[in-house]
Amino acid sequence: MSQNGSGQDPWGKPGQRNEQKPENSSNNGWDANQNRGNQEQSPPDIEEIFNNLLKKLGGGNKKSGQNNGSSAPPPSLPFNFTKALPIAAVLGAIVWGASGFYTIKEAERGVVLRFGELHSIVQPGLNWKPTFVDKVLPVNVEQVKELRTQGAMLTQDENMVKVEMTVQYRVQDPAKYRFSVTNADDSLNQATDSALRYVVGHMTMDDILTTGRAVVRENTWKALNDIIKPYDMGIEVIDVNFQSARPPEEVKDAFDDAIKAQEDEQRFIREAEAYAREKEPIARGDAQRIVEEATAYKDRIVLDAQGEVERLQRLLPEFKASSELLRERLYIQTMEKVMANTPKVMLDGNHGNNLTVLPLEQIMGKKMESNKAPSAVNSTPVLAPSETQSNLTQPTKVEPVRQGRFN
């Protein structure tokens, strides 16, 4: 110990003086060797590292104090702070890493900003981002949004009309939707209003209120797409619906009457068309039936005439051979045909002025009916002989039956 001029313990901490001797001086060397071996095998103490760092940062003041033999201990950090600092750093790293996990819904896409600049587009699911470095903006790309616009607009014929229209759209490109324009929804609203005013300004008020509603819708849709195309806002217009168009309140009643009259006109036209569609097939069927009946009648007459000619041609040789006999035969055949369709009455002229009439046609008709319906004959009343005789003796008025030419 005397060899060390400064009186400092070689096995102590730097700057610490050896003012107390160990109680057992005989074991001093062995204990010093053991402590030195333990220090070589054990890891360095964090507190000692910080103390050495502070001593080095202190500079000459610490060194001059040691030369003067000052026994004041060097300043050191609190024990709790130095122990908790690495633990806090590890916990902070864990919290920072865990805070970077986020979820994107199925209908959304995530727009990633790295230090405020567009970096990428993330898909639905669980994702991770470095906190305080990246920022994620979720954008719904499947939701159909609706935009409504209305206002009083001037028509081509310098009339005012109040128009309402809705536009259905959805986001097609999330990055362009967020950064192509300042506010895509507001820009689409202004573009819709501009397109609607342009279309209404090129049409008359009567067309807008009556028959031109579909034209206003189609033209507005086309004009809106032409307006938003240069801006490339990442929006897709799905449909444009023309809600209503109203005239000013001062002339609203007159326009309502005009619209009602036009609707009645269309209704009457549709009713007339329906009636025509109902009657036209019937008329065509009747006309076709009449034509077919006339054609059949013509064919029958022609065939009858041809048959008569053929029959007379066959009789011509017989007529040349025996004309009187053939003439009598033809007369008898003709009378048979005529008398077959003529009512026949038998008269008895031997009783003076009283004529006895026998209606053969009625008797023959009754017999034919009795043959067709035997059961009906049993139910008919039977006339007495006197009644039968009176019926037979009474004169019967016979009306001539007009026969057709070809019957």
TrEMBL record:
<keyword id="KW-0812">Transmembrane</keyword>
<comment type="subunit">
    <text>HflC and HflK may interact to form a multimeric complex.</text>
</comment>
<comment type="function">
    <text>HflC and HflK could encode or regulate a protease.</text>
</comment>
<feature type="region of interest" description="Disordered">
    <location>
        <begin position="369"/>
        <end position="407"/>
    </location>
</feature>
<keyword id="KW-1133">Transmembrane helix</keyword>
<comment type="similarity">
    <text>Belongs to the band 7/mec-2 family. HflK subfamily.</text>
</comment>
<feature type="domain" description="Band 7">
    <location>
        <begin position="99"/>
        <end position="259"/>
    </location>
</feature>
<feature type="compositionally biased region" description="Polar residues">
    <location>
        <begin position="372"/>
        <end position="396"/>
    </location>
</feature>
<protein>
    <recommendedName>
        <fullName>Protein HflK</fullName>
    </recommendedName>
</protein>
<feature type="compositionally biased region" description="Polar residues">
    <location>
        <begin position="23"/>
        <end position="42"/>
    </location>
</feature>
<dbReference type="InterPro" id="IPR001107">
    <property type="entry name" value="Band_7"/>
</dbReference>
<dbReference type="InterPro" id="IPR001972">
    <property type="entry name" value="Stomatin_HflK_fam"/>
</dbReference>
<dbReference type="InterPro" id="IPR010201">
    <property type="entry name" value="HflK"/>
</dbReference>
<keyword id="KW-0472">Membrane</keyword>
<feature type="region of interest" description="Disordered">
    <location>
        <begin position="1"/>
        <end position="48"/>
    </location>
</feature>
<dbReference type="InterPro" id="IPR050710">
    <property type="entry name" value="Band7/mec-2_domain"/>
</dbReference>
<dbReference type="InterPro" id="IPR036013">
    <property type="entry name" value="Band_7/SPFH_dom_sf"/>
</dbReference>
<dbReference type="Pfam" id="PF01145">
    <property type="entry name" value="Band_7"/>
</dbReference>
<feature type="region of interest" description="Disordered">
    <location>
        <begin position="57"/>
        <end position="76"/>
    </location>
</feature>
<dbReference type="GO" id="GO:0016020">
    <property type="term" value="C:membrane"/>
</dbReference>
